[in-house]
Write a structure and sequence with these properties.
alpha+beta; about 20% helix
């Protein structure tokens, strides 16, 4: 699978890390650090497994480091769109020389 980073261009998926479902605020999907083990087991291991087009949060770890909003079909792995997850990243990356 390849993802087209809006800053770096098309790259192999090995350069990216999956960060979970996209919700606008990545921390909103996770329990507070003080939550008990049951809450963390649920958040980490008992996630939904959606079928079809799904918005996901990815990070370009071995590239620009930006978080990306990826729309991907989980049945075919076809990447339908990739954009910066944070509009501030989009402005900052376009301003670089």
């Amino acid at each position: 699978m390849r993802l087209a980073c809006p800053f770096c261009g098309p790259r192999d998926a090995a350069e990216f890390a999956y960060e979970g479902p996209f919700c606008g605020d990545p921390a909103a999907e996770r329990p507070p650090l003080a939550a008990g083990p049951a809450a963390w087991v649920e958040a980490v291991f008992l996630r939904d497994q959606p079928r079809g087009p799904t918005r996901e949060l990815w990070r370009h770890v071995h590239g620009c480091g930006c978080f990306l909003d990826v729309l991907r079909d989980t049945l075919s792995h076809e990447v339908l769109s990739v954009a910066f997850a944070d509009p501030a990243d989009a402005r900052a990356m376009k301003a670089k020389p």
